[in-house]
Amino acid sequence: ARRSATRPGDFRSPDTVAPALPPAATFGELDLPDAVQRTLADRGVSEPFPIQAATLPNSLAGRDVLGRGRTGSGKTLAFGLALLVRTAGQRADSRRPLALILVPTRELAQQVTDELAPYAQSVKVRLATVVGGLSMGRQTAALREGAEVVVATPGRLTDLVERRACRLDRVDITVLDEADQMADMGFMPQVTALLDQVRPDGQRMLFSATLDRNIDHLVQNYLHDPVVHSVDPAAG
Ligand code: ADP
Ligand code: MG
């Protein structure tokens, strides 16, 4: 029923949108699995950054999220913790991941993978990184072995889907990271074609440094009543 409450595009109107849950002052309030709490502590992450405090209560509850934050504001854990916690305990079938993180570049894919790997390991979720410029063998092997989460650039993932090395029909959580950069780089046709293959009732989170016109149509067509966190860029 989450999807049927409003007409497409209505989410901007405050009276049609379910209110956002209040921000979490601490990670402890979020009821994260002990293994995740321990990993946060091990890595010296003690207090949530603002974008994490604002979005995690909502994303952990399954809400769509639209988040804007400058570089370094902590977007990776903002989407990553919710995605991993909500995926934990499920097993993917061969070549049919359960969650997808799309990023514009190979470097960003590696950064996101490196940042999330310890948390993923702590809850026994398997990550596969799927990017261009590297041989396909390891990537297709990770998919075949049943990675639950795929961190990918749009081009290589499209290629692997076309080769039937991956199917997106069980993807229940989709993240678009640095969405404005993906638009600037001309990836929107591939991104929307991939989004059209994931579960239509799944959760989507879109993060970006800017929320301007080039991502409007993603927001309008692929997010459903998102919780919006958008801080003044100057204030971070
Ligand atoms: P963004 O994607 O918004 O540019 P990142 O997610 O890459 O930012 O985070 C920037 C840095 O801040 C990373 O090194 C990350 O480990 C660190 N970080 C993220 N959240 C916290 C936090 N709550 N406390 C301390 N460090 C954090
Ligand atoms: Mg980032």
Structural class: alpha/beta
Walk across the major sheet and give the strand order.
3-4-2-5-6-1-7
CA distance, first residue to last residue:
35 Å
The hetero molecules present are: adenosine-5'-diphosphate, magnesium ion
Shape: globular
Low-confidence stretches: 1-11
Instruction: Please give the share of residues in helix.
Output: 25-40%
- Mean pLDDT, to the nearest integer, reads 92
| Number of helices, where a helix is a run of at least 4 consecutive DSSP H or I residues | 9
Number of strands: 7
**Whole-angstrom Rg:** 17 Å
Largest sheet: 7 strands, parallel
- What order do the SSEs take from the amino end to the carboxyl end, as H and E? HHEHEHEHEHEHHEHE
Q: Strand-residue fraction?
A: 5-15%
What's the SSE blueprint?
Elements: H1 34-42, H2 50-60, E1 65-68, H3 75-87, E2 99-102, H4 106-122, E3 127-130, H5 136-144, E4 149-152, H6 154-162, E5 173-176, H7 179-184, H8 188-195, E6 203-208, H9 216-222, E7 227-230
Helix pairs in contact: 2-3, 3-4
Adenosine-5'-diphosphate is lined by residues 45, 47-49, 52, 69, 71-77, 115.
